[in-house]
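User: Please predict the structure of the protein below. I'd like the answer in structure-token form so I can feed it into my own downstream comparison script.

Assistant: Understood. Taking the following sequence of 298 residues as input:
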Amino acid sequence: MKELIHSPLVLNSNATKLIETFSAERIISNYEKLGLHVDRFFDSESLYLFECLKTGYRFYYPFKAIGDADFYKDLSLNRANYYSERWEHKQALKSMNEGDIVLEIGSGFGLFLKMLKFNNISGSGLELNPHAVQKCVDEGLDVRQKLVQDLDNNILFDKVCFFQVLEHIAEVHSFIEAAINVLKVGGKLIIGVPNNNPYLFRYDKYHTLNLPPHHAGLWNKRSLTSLEKVFPLKLESMNFEPLNLTYDYFLNIQLKSSHSGLEKFCIKLLNKLFPKFLKRFLCKFYKGRNVLAVFTKT
């Protein structure tokens, strides 16, 4: 592909390189196995993964292959556990104080907002899935079907957070910028995303829900840290979900991956003879499935 592709994270930068090419037909087929019809998002035979050379952020192209509100409504109806309590929810609570005014972008069915309410913290949310918004409203939660880019910047929050949202956004610069604009100076921006370094993409690049139309980009430690270079932010902390919490998922990917026959045999043998040892070993050298980064607005 000879076309110059601009980074969606760094404005006016075409310092990008092609990393991988995917078959659109295979992606469509994989989604059909999940009961989702996504052919409307693809009008070419290939999908591409690029990397922004300035930040390490990896993103899929064309951008129009990314899901819409109807896609996420169908996904939530097909996968009952799509909106669920997560490790990063509990971690984020550690950054909250009673009296904080918190905005959650991508509230789903309001699980984190309920956690805030239980801890006497004021929280409101934004969500594009109309089915989820209505359920939140019915339960007395302050959730609106609105983009953060459309919020009134005269209302500022102590904390702005989004969990498992940023990887779905194609126009990441304007999204992050808008989130910062409604945050007080000195306030915290809290971001939870899948950790795509090292194992998810490395061992299972055709993992269906890590591809468009579900995911628009892939985040890791380097690309998250690079946000300091692009926005008025200072990284305060970065924590990875302990691998032991999703170890079975990780092991399954290892056994399905493109390892050599000998590597697969060794993993299977060790798992059969010394499963506890293998688990301790892998959990020591691999980071978990998700990462939570906390930034301060400067």
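That's the full token string. The first helix runs from residue 24 to 32.
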